[in-house]
């Protein structure tokens, strides 16, 4: 059965590959991004988030079957937590009423294996509390003290925690909506290209995210997992952070977490 999807971050990388696969499968995809696609919205801002939900309602007539919150960035900047956590949560919350009216509704956020790396407790606590100004201030402080790399891991840890907390509740499981995250390792997209092009940072990335199975992924290799988790076939997987990381999480956390 053809379904209607909303994919954010659809102009590039994993979002673009997911959009292409879903369209190949015959589904309708509303592609959202900053400058491109069916819906143009800046998910770093309250106006952009509200516009995304309003436009999605308009374009779908109020019924959406699945959402993939993929928009994200990895800058050493508060913007990273604004988009990766608050933008993703606003996307999912914003279209939840449309999903509740959809068929076999599913929601997914693209997290990251980086969430298992050290994080900044102040950023994560503020995100947990839904306090965006405090999270942005904590991110600014991390950047200012030379720990800007913690902003990305913290944003992904926070959004993963949000998925764990929200998924089993009335608003999601109670409404029949599966809610999960996919946590990729290193994927070859414009987000990672600058890091991988420089031999020094490439070595750091390879050490931080060891991928014994098949090495770095192409975005097309992530898309089928995203498509399955958001399909009607996924009846019982919810509240999961599904690592699609070539074994990185197993290497980094061993048998301590599963
Ligand atoms: N590439 C990787 O190795 C990797 C690994 C783990 C997780 N991820 C996550 O996957 C997701 C997609 O990343 P990608 O690698 O495909 O990157 P990408 O840069 O190719 O695509 C990201 C897209 O998000 C959009 N975006 C950024 N800020 C936005 C905003 N404020 N409002 C709306 N759209 C915005 C960009 O315009 C872009 O089209 C991100 O959430 C990223 O953190 C990527």
Helices and strands, in order, run as EHEEHEHEHHHEHHHEH
State mean pLDDT (0 to 100 scale).
Answer: 98
Number of domains: 1
Output the number of helix runs.
10
Q: Architecture in CATH? A: 3-Layer(aba) Sandwich
Please state roughly what percent of the residues sit in beta strands, choosing from under 5%, 5-15%, 15-25%, 25-35%, 35-45% or over 45%.
Answer: 5-15%
Question: How does the major sheet shape up?
Answer: 7 strands, parallel
CATH class descriptor = Alpha Beta
Pfam family, one: adh_short_C2
Organism: Streptomyces omiyaensis
InterPro entries: NAD(P)-bd_dom_sf, SDR_fam
Protein name: SDR family oxidoreductase
What do you see in this structure?
The protein is an alpha/beta fold. The chain has a single domain, classed as NAD(P)-binding Rossmann-like Domain (Rossmann fold, 3-Layer(aba) Sandwich), CATH 3.40.50. 47% of the residues lie in helices and 13% in strands. It has ten helices and seven strands. The protein has a seven-stranded parallel sheet with strand order 3-2-1-4-5-6-7, sandwiched between helices. Strand 1, helix 1 and strand 2 form a beta-alpha-beta unit. The two termini are 34 Å apart. The model has no long low-confidence stretch (mean pLDDT 98). The protein binds nicotinamide-adenine-dinucleotide. Nicotinamide-adenine-dinucleotide binds next to helix 1 and helix 3.
């Amino acid at each position: 059965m053809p379904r209607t999807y909303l994919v954010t971050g659809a102009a590039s990388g994993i979002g673009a590959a997911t959009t292409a696969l879903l369209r190949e499968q015959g589904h309708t995809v509303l592609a959202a991004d900053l400058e491109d696609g069916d819906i143009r919205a800046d998910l770093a801002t309250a106006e952009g988030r509200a516009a995304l939900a309003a436009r999605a309602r308009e374009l779908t007539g109020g019924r959406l079957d699945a959402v993939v919150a993929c928009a994200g960035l990895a800058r050493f900047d508060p913007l990273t937590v604004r988009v990766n956590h608050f933008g993703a949560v606003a996307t999912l919350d914003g279209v939840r009423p449309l999903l509740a009216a959809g068929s076999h509704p599913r929601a997914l956020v693209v997290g990251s294996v980086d969430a298992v790396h050290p994080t900044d407790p102040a950023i994560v606590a503020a995100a947990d509390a839904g306090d965006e100004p405090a999270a942005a201030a904590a991110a600014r402080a991390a950047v200012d003290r030379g720990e800007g790399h913690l902003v990305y891991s913290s944003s992904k840890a926070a959004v993963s925690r949000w998925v764990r907390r929200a998924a089993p509740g009335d608003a999601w499981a109670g409404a029949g909506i599966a809610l999960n995250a996919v946590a990729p390792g290193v994927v070859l997209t414009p987000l990672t290209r600058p890091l991988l092009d420089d031999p020094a940072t490439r070595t750091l990335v390879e050490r931080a995210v060891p991928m014994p199975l098949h090495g770095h992924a192409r975005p097309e290799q992530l898309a089928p997992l995203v498509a399955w988790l958001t399909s009607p076939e996924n009846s019982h997987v919810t509240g999961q952070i599904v690592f699609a990381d070539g074994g990185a999480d197993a290497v980094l956390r061993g048998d301590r977490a599963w």
